[in-house]
Amino acid sequence: MKHDIIRPELPDASTPARARITGAWLRDETDAVNELLHIAQLPEAERALVENQAAELVTRVRAKQDERSAIAAFMQQYDLSSSEGMLLMCIAEALQRIPDNDTADKLIRDKLTDADWKKHIGTSKSVFVNASTWGLMLTGNIVDLPDATRRDYPAAMRRLVNRVGEPVVRMAVRQAMRIMGQQFIMGHNIKVALQRTQRTDNRLYRYSFDMLGEAAITAPDAARYLKAYQNAIDVLGKHPKAGDVLAAPSVSVKLSALHPRYEVADRARALAELTPRVLELAQRAMARGIALTIDAEETARLELSLDILEAVFTDPSLEGWNGFGLAVQAYQKRAPFVLDWLAETGRAAGRRWCVRLVKGAYWDAEIKLAQEMGLSGYPVYTRKPNTDVSYLACAHRMFDAGADVIYPQFATHNAHTIAAIHHMARGRPFEYQRLHGMGKEMYDEIVGSGHLNIPCRVYAPVGTHKDLLPYLVRRLLENGANTSFINHIVDEFLPMEQLVGDPCEVVRGYASKSHPSIPLPVNVYAEVRKNSMGVNLSDDNELAALADAANQHPGPWQAAPLVPGAKP
After folding, report:
1. Looking at 120-186, which runs of residues are DSSP E strands?
2. What angle do CA 502, 368, 460 make, to 5 degrees?
3. How far is CA 212 from CA 413, 460, 471, 475, 487, in A?
4. Least confident of 54-68, 158-172, 334-348
5. What residues contact residue 162 under an 8 Å CB cut-off, 6+ apart?
6. Which residues make Cβ contacts (< 8 Å) with residue 339, sequence separation at least 6?
7. Phi, psi (5° rounding) for residue 443?
8. Most exposed: 69, 87, 352, 497, by fewest CB within 10 Å?
């Protein structure tokens, strides 16, 4: 049917593979998980082998607790299940949005003295954590606290604020973010970051460099990011391993950084202006013998990104280059169908995708946005073990596609997932990936002459402190929760079987596959009232249905309030 009203923003035609992606936007979670269980489930004997291998990895890491990274120790001490962990996140997130010092000082005065900091002092083996137990020691200097101060830390904090004033404490808090940021950032520019990869055991890893920063808001922002990516590709092209797209360091690109209107509402413009920029970066990477990966972002942008990636991937100028890739988020219900489409596209073009499988870093925002919009369901799974099952099922799909179509890259810090991937690979080529600053202790057991001898690529952010905070907050939200494997692996009180258990068995044991405490968006107000229902304007099927309905009533239209008792 002709879409007269919204037609310019609708794609012309959809292949069956793309139609399956669109149709799974808000798929019923129970149906999706039950289907994935059949794919992800291992026979009992193999499941025991995987769990034993995962347990051995955990045992090795726990034996080296004193060597774990400072940031891992910090996040265990201040996980997001504690009031102090939540307070730190609130302060960190708020400070980046407060434009004036007076308001920042009021925030510190109001919040920083409220928490029970004394319970954290001296409870960690990490000098970094004890030196960072927020207020007094945030500048990076280790301060010996007298016994009286240890007994009443909140009072000491209040005295400090009263004595030196909020501006000094504000500077200390911001300095603390810099200290934490140094654990996450590989270097303030690409040359420094590349030099750091040659230090000690960093040489065991492959690297993918990401230019820090969030979405471009203006055209100058996009031009600045484009130049940064171009420069990074040029620098990496001089690396001794350039020419081997798998062994050489690579670049990760955010499409939102390259265009200020990378959104479905501006689909035509994004396709026309963003595609040439991505193609130019791909051509530059090809000429310099390195790989280029497009990062995953919000669910609303997925299918628009696939349109851009397909146009770039199939461009004749990239013939013979197998270094172009993308990240796929396993927490999205569309993920398995995206992989099917990638395999189909790769076979048709006679080329290989590099696919980085991740679990997903925007879960909180995706859940809240679906509730805010009053959608009929969620685009992501509501239980973490459901995502773990999806991840394993997607891994099977990637291997089954064939090495000539998909080179699998698995980004995970979870021991069971690592062991399961190693088992299902059965000698087929792949690589692991981890975040810089996280998971090093475990992957040191895997790379090089380690336990599994499988290559691992480090996702390494590059940038200055002013670009750090959004990335830092997202990483801490993703890995700082008390359900995070990063926290669990060093918790010796947690039973091993709970830590390395098969997520398929966990999910099979649920009475409800969806989370019972996360109602559908339409029911978020429970017994009070039904939520107002919205339209998912990023879903082509819903957009087409809206266009058809609108075209049946060409107007003139009249708007009026629907509140009971209100007069038009």
Report:
1. none
2. 60
3. 21, 9, 7, 13, 25
4. 158-172
5. none
6. 328, 355, 394, 397, 398, 401, 406
7. -75, -20
8. 497
Q: Tokens for 18, please give them.
A: 């793309």
Reported pTM:
0.84
d(CA 175, CA 470): 16
- 402, amino acid identity: G
- Category of 463 on φ-ψ map: left (φ > 0), alpha (ψ -120 to 50) or beta: left
Token digits of residue 485:
């494997």
SS3 percent helix, strand, coil of the chain, rounded to 5, is 55, 10, 40
**DSSP 8-state assignment for residue 340:** H
DSSP 476-500: HHHHSSTT-HHHHTT-TTS-HHHHS
Rounded CA separation 171/286 (Å) = 44
Give me Rg for the CA atoms of the chain: 25
| Spatial distance between the Cα atoms of 478 and 471, rounded to a whole number of angstroms | 11
pLDDT of 285 higher than 60: yes
Name 441's Cβ contacts closer than 8 Å, sequence gap at least 6: 61, 64, 67, 68, 69, 72
H-assigned helices in 135-292: 147-151, 153-164, 166-184, 190-196, 219-236, 255-258, 267-288
Q: Which residue has the tokens 């993308």?
A: 326
Torsion of CA 336, 340, 343, 346, to 10 degrees: -110
3-state secondary structure of 222: helix
How high does pLDDT run on average in the chain? 82
Q: Indicate the helix (H) or strand (E) that contains 106.
A: helix 101-111
Neighbours of 275 (CB within 10 A): 19
Tokens of 394: 């997607």
